[in-house]
Amino acid sequence: MSESELLKTRREKIESLKADGIDLYPNDIEVTSTTEDVLNRLGGLDNEALEKIEDRFTLAGRLMAIRNFGKASFVNIQDRKGRIQAYIKKNIVGDMSYSLFQKFDIGDIISVAGRVFKTKTGELTVQADSIRLLSKALRPLPEKWHGLTDIETRYRQKHLDLIVNPSVRGMFHTRSRIIRLIRDFMYKYDFLEVETPMMHPIAGGAMAKPFKTYHNALGMDLYLRIAPELYLKRLVVGGLERVFELNRNFRNEGVSTLHNPEFTMMEFYMAYATYEHLMSMTEELLTDIARDLFGSFIFSYQGTEIDLTPPWRKLTVKDAIVAYTGVDAPVLDDRERSIKYARDIGLEILGNETLGKVIMTIFEAIVEDKLIQPTFVTQYPLEVSPLSRKNNEDDRFTDRFELYIQGREIANAFSELNDPYDQRERFLMQLREREAGDLEAHEMDEDYIRALEYAMPPTAGEGIGIDRLVMLFTDSPSIRDVILFPHMRAKM
Predict the structure, then answer these.
(1) Is residue 17 domain-shared with residue 65, that is, in the same domain?
(2) What is the rounded distance in angstroms from the CA atom of residue 296 to the CA atom of residue 289?
(3) Exposed/middle/buried for 349, CB within 10 Å: 0-12, 13-18, 19+?
(4) In this structure, is residue 27 part of a structural domain?
(5) Are 123 and 64 in contact (CB under 8 A)?
(6) 388-393: long-range contacts at Cβ-Cβ below 8 A with a sequence spacing of 24 or more?
(7) What average pLDDT does the chain have?
(8) Within this chain, do residues 271 and 204 fall inside the same structural domain, yes or no?
(9) Is the pTM of this model over 0.85?
(10) Angle made by CA atoms 190, 194, 199, in degrees to the nearest 5
(11) Domain boundary among 89, 109, 141
């Protein structure tokens, strides 16, 4: 049958049920157990032991399969914990209930109640003495969903993906578990969870293009935050010496397997710490998660073995470029030679870039995707790190690291710039870059500088991309797999 014919048949069935006085959407069910409760408690018992269990269980869920044998049927019911089989027999539930049951469809929400037994094949089954319709499904579930290869349909109709693919539901349970582990880790180290504004008068805290909106009552432009950094550091100034926020950021940029316009980050700031301290914390956090999920520091991601066993490799940006390109290190100390080298290997260079930006162009194009095993990349150029503390030995670079695993940035951290004079100069440098056409450069934030003038203690901060972390730990190839409702282009 075509979809339109199926919808027509179901509408007719609904009208028939209404004419019989059947409430298609009651709300008085008392569920006593989940499928998991019943399976865990009774799954290991044989029928002789089950006969001694007099408990009657009431379960509710989605009807996923019907095998009809005339005066008896087997059905599969799915709730939030899994699936269980139920046996519906006419002479047990009664003629009226069985007649109503015959009008049930795959996808309906139903309840069954009764005692439990095992079939000849050993499957734990609820022998229903009562069955009810709780919510009638007008639309049928897609047929042979497990063979469906239209990924876009799965992303656009996540509710269907969750209904029919247990692995998808399992992935989001794992995501929740990872976030819970992260929170527990932060609480262990005496961090305070906070919430900072989602709408900012100035787009700051990261080099990215913001979403812009307008507040009618205040009569002012606002920006969806690209990062919570500048507000979290204000809290450190205020004496909240260890803070973290686990929430959404928004960046008006491209969509890909690694990027979604809104995404989840965990940012944290720790007074009296350096970026080296955060390397150790990051190692501990990720290995704790791996141990909890896999019982090991070693796991597979898309066919590649990832080994999180500490200590992780550390490379400076320049050393990484030398290691993966073979370029002579002195080339990277000279702007003109670096520009020539970048052009020689096919990179698009305008010619007005600073040395630091040329170095990062080479790094991002050649090195990033080769950093498969966990690697801390350190000493980022000053020009691309406007909020980071200068390195004491070489002030062209900053005390910063990014963590790469599987060729992807997972975390970004640095010792924070807490000198208000230096911070003002950095903002001015960013303003010059905006005037030269870099729309992702920071704007001047006088209020943040004013906060620094009250003195921020020496501090280190870090941002961890939760979606990419979940991708890694759930073997998911796309960020859309780990976001419940990823952004998609409008259907034409």
Answers:
(1) yes
(2) 10
(3) middle
(4) yes
(5) no
(6) 388/414, 388/415, 388/416, 388/417, 389/414, 389/415, 389/416, 389/417, 389/418, 390/417, 390/422
(7) 94
(8) yes
(9) yes
(10) 155
(11) 141
Bond into 210 cis (ω within 30): no
Give the amino acid at 466: I
- In a shared domain, residues 46 and 193: no
Give the pLDDT confidence score for residue 144 in this predicted structure: 53
- Which residue matches tokens 């969750």? 162
Give the per-residue pLDDT at 145. Answer: 45
Residues in the chain with pLDDT values less than 70:
1, 143-150, 492
Residue with tokens 């066919």: 303
CATH number for 306: 3.30.930.10
Residue 141: strand, helix, or coil: coil
- Tell whether 172 and 233 lie within a shared domain: yes
- How many residues are listed for the chain in this entry? 492
Give domain status of residue 319, yes or no. Answer: no
Total domain count, the chain: 2
Tens digits of per-residue pLDDT, 230-261?
999 999 999 999 999 999 999 998 889 999 99
Query: Which residues span the domain enclosing 56?
Result: 3-141
Q: Specify the pLDDT at position 492.
A: 65
Inter-residue contact 209 to 251 (CB < 8 Å): yes
Q: Positive or negative, the Cα torsion across 292, 296, 298, 301?
A: negative
Does residue 56 sit in the same domain as residue 107? Answer: yes
Are 63 and 186 within one domain? no
